[in-house]
Amino acid sequence: MLLIPSIVPAAKTLTGEIRARYDRLSRTERRLADAILDFPGELASYSATELAGLAGVPKVTVTRLVRRLGFASYEAARLASRSASDGGSPLYRLRKEADAAGLPIWSAHVDRCIGNIQKLLPDLDPAALEGAIEALAKARSVWLVGYRNNQYLAGYARWQFIQVRDRVHLLPGAGETLGETLTSLAAGDLLVVLAIRRRVPVLKRIMAAATAAGVGILWIGDAHSPDEATGAAWRFACETVSLSPLDNHVAPMALLHLLSAGLLDRMGAAGRRRLAHIEALHEDLDEL
In the listed set 93, 124, 147, which residue is the last one of a domain according to the structure? Predict the structure, then answer.
């Protein structure tokens, strides 16, 4: 019998507690709450006195509000803010002023992209990379799964992989339930999990189902959120830091391109024949 992990209740968030109690707050407390909701991640950087000054309320209002929100102290509220920021929430990573180190904004963003790719290289185990490429080439079927931004990464990876091999699928299929798709997984298959933060709880269940079916797992995540790659034979963590509150996905894309290029080389003549056939059909069908 397959045992799938239960879903852990969500941790208390600062913004969630404010929204739940907002209608019951006093006018002064609402002024402070509005200031926090504008930039909830900034709370981790301010003392209670500084926050009160920014909101234009007495310091005692800060103490009263955090207790009304269910936090034992202001420090507990700051820790909740820091935890949400570390978890990848764009809302908690908003800042009043962006830090671009004095560079033009476009130049600073390009530097960050390059830096993220460079951070990927030292931790990239050549043996693991070769093993992952070999698994992509030999698998009976390759399945890709990703939610939120990861869905687009999974779609990009499939688009590249199908150039040189068949039986590459996104999971779940369009309009299908997970059960209808997962039942097709079998030993000898490979599941590629795109798990850049923030992940959805059902991903653990999908991986558990794949493991129970004897399916190999290739896990691509980020370098900042907890490692949930239980059961994965190949694991890669990508840097996603950004100058903006939104994660930077240049490094995961670079890794997927590296895997695709390696797969093309590994498939050899068979891969080249498939690619040539695809191009011939493009011409016959006048598709491009």
Answer: 93
